[in-house]
Amino acid sequence: MSDAHTDEGVVVYWRPGCTFCMKLRAQLRFARLRHTKVNIWRDPDAAAFVRSVADGNETVPTVTVAGRPMVNPTLRQLREAVRAYAPHLQPKRDT
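and the corresponding structure tokens:
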């Protein structure tokens, strides 16, 4: 797995055709939460990582926040994880 997968940010592991992935990625864009996307069908190491945290399955979206894995999280769960483990990544609010 490349260094981009192990950084302290938000990493979304996804695959083409996954409607849950499309929904979460759209929500992340709307929430202006910066993230890195990793297609598990193009990255065997990423697919192996997902299997290692999803009971042997390639369940996507799987997301890491500051290295902490979450399998098929809601946007609310992601926001809570960012607040707890990577508050510097929270989008700035317009005033």
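(Above: one complete record from the training split.) The first strand starts at residue 10 and ends at 14.
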